What does this fold into?
Amino acid sequence: MKYFCKINEHEFQLSVNHETDEIRVHGTKETADIDLVKIDGGLYHLLLENKSYLISVSNTNMYFRASIGGEEYNVEIEDNINRLKSKYGEKAEDVNNLGKVHSPMPGLVVHIYVSVGDEVQLNTPLLALEAMKMENEIISPANGKITDISVTTGQNISAETLLMTIE
Amino acid sequence: MKINKILIANRGEIALRILRTCKEMNIRSTVVYSDIDRTSLHVLYAEEAYSIGAPLSSESYLRIDKIIDVAKTASVDAIHPGYGFLSENAEFAEAVANNNMLFIGPSPETIKTLGDKTKAKSLASSCGVNSVPGASEPIDSLQSALETAEEIGFPVLLKAASGGGGKGMRIVNDSSAMEEMLRIASSEAESSFGDSRIFIEKYISCPHHIEFQILADTHGNTVHLGDRECSVQRRYQKIMEESPSPFITDEVRSKMGAHAVEIMKAAKYTGAGTVEFLVNSDMDYYFLEVNTRLQVEHTVTEMRTGIDLVKEQIRIAEGNELSFTQEEIMFTGHAIECRITSEDTSNDFLPTTGRIRSLCEPGGPGIRIDSGVRQGSEMSPYYDPLMSKLIVWGRNRSESIARCDRALSEYVISGLPTSIPFCKKVLKHNSFLEGNYDTTLSDSLMKNVAPADHDPERTAAAIGAAAYKVDSKPKNFSNGNSTNDNASAWKRSGRESSLR
It folds into this structure.
């Protein structure tokens, strides 16, 4: 399997042979002596030409985040299957999602300022979400009419929960 | 009165911090926990633990009735409130006293006086210390807020009447933003403190936040244990602190220290407390408030003075005299604290939740870790995002900065984003290194500092991320070789040149 990685503005390609466990790095210097061990969930140790890196990785919705020595790298990865998919386009989904307001973080719904049927403008406060004792207002991403409210006051929600639909 | 048993009415790292001193002093202790904290570190290390209800603070850690009930059942002599939760709640301090137990902190009257911003300011002014210009009464309407703001001049700061820790606080730059900010601040104040009243005051631009640690016994002895610079903040909340402040001169420092002591004497303060000042770029200082409790950042003071502040709090509550005078307090070296929080610092400091999948803590010379978490700990949205505190000591500021940077590099927390990368960036920032930074540092850092970008690390990051991606795929399509989860499928080596 080939993996296309992007970090900051740098792109390079990793090939992984899943049968022989070999990794090859393209797009960097020619030789890469690689010894990778998994230490724990999300924690890897890499000897790259005998240089040592302890890498802790977590997953956000957008990319993978790898920390090395307390510094973070956001890594976008596409495998060749996904790259083919995006080449032939699967964009219809995105268009339908325009009026869907999702929660950017987990938290507790403390106020809902609008009701179904309300006309809202871009940036109208829709609801307040409390997370870690701070209240954060979620604002409308567009002009439109509220057609559905999917959460209630007092509800605990996770990140990416659908909050409201605006048409 | 000798204290034999203490109830710790808190959770997380501070509950453990207090527990540790109790053990050292041979004092028995009891902790309380909410349903979600059954396997939290403070419960695992406790001598005794009592369940006090649902995860929401208002159902557990803020329930005076339940905590007093536990204290009676467990027959404790005293209650230590830690910081946050009920620590500055006069009603709680009163309830403790009414049930014939000691509250480890000042008297309910002192908490009330100093918790009232108007009274606290007039107390400071009676000691010759100015406060930041502002209205003396809470805002009663949008109109009056706008009038006051025009009078003292924009930008203004909205502040919760019974607030603290940056909650219910917003900067308003012009009249158009007033309505929205007022609504958010008062709603936040209502849900955090049960008090929606908001004060308005002049916002001092580029301010330094500098505070003095005070200890006062019941025999009239009051001393300060030096200053702490707390100007590295995000959302008006501190994230890194150091002592001594690299900004003020020794002359200003000693004037501020003397004023802090005077204010606390005037308030008839007892126990450990902190006098907070705002300092402008000309080193003019304004009284901000008094925190009538132990602070998160008390640790940097402990590192420099060698004095265990929790032990002193307990000794003072027992009615003992301070065992040292102002002159006998020796300050050695320099200390820095980094608050390690579960926040996504590259995404506007949004709090994050999730499980700590693996954890490696730093060690070595000059390092202290006060942590409330372990591998497997779950960070929930119910409480503060503070996971642990890294505190370092060095013989001078440059040694402690180097040590702090080194320790942050060793600190590995996987599973969720933390404040570690942010703290590292602060340590490398020029104005921090020069010791000339103010509370705007974090904004300028977020805007101007490019993401880390070193060449071999970049490759390593990509390999690690790809390995993680492969490892997190569902394994049920595999060929039947059930592999040990710990032995990675990525234990391999490959030499590109020999493959081609």
Observations:
- Chain B has a mean pLDDT of 91.
- Chain B has three domains: 5-104, 133-202, 208-448.
- The two ends of chain B are 81 Å apart (CA to CA).
